[in-house]
Amino acid sequence: MASNSGHVRRVKALYKAILKIHLGLPIHYRAIGDQYVKDEFRRNKTSDTKQTDIFMHEWTKYYVTIAKQLSHKNRTGVIGENLSSDFLDCFSSEQLGQLYELFQETQKPLKDKE
Which one, of 64, 39, 51, lies nearest residue 7 by Cα? Predict the structure, then answer.
């Protein structure tokens, strides 16, 4: 990611905010989510400016979505959202593989996650 110190602070702040919001998730989703976030932020450390802007925008949207879903005003018990086929068409084969692995992990019985 870009070396600008202000930018680095924003990235770290978003990273910490996401991990903090994950505290409101069920424990098995929290563990999966925390690991995924750590891996993604680590993987994108050396991205160019354009990719970093997209990365930050998408992770900010994720944060806002989870915050709304966990708020007491909107407590439906549903975490996440469905992805449209148009949205999925924008993914690379590597991203689709990661998404499928994440999906499989969330479908495992709770006893397998302990």
Answer: 51
What is the per-residue pLDDT across 45-55, written as a single tens digit (0 to 9) for each? 888 888 899 99
End-to-end CA distance of the chain: give it in Å, rounded: 34
Write out the two tokens for 61. Answer: 């949207």
DSSP state, residue 90: T
E runs forming strands in 1-114: none
pLDDT, tens only, 77-108: 677 778 889 989 998 999 899 889 888 887 87
85, 43 contact by CB (below 8 A): no
Single out the residue of 21, 19, 32, 18 nearest to residue 110, CA to CA: 32
The residues near 26 (Cβ < 8 Å, ≥ 6 apart) are 79
All structural domains of the chain with their residue ranges = 1-79, 82-114
Separation of alpha carbons 108 and 69, rounded Å = 22
Residue at token pair 């084969």: 93
Residue pair 35/98 in contact (Cβ under 8 Å)? The answer is no
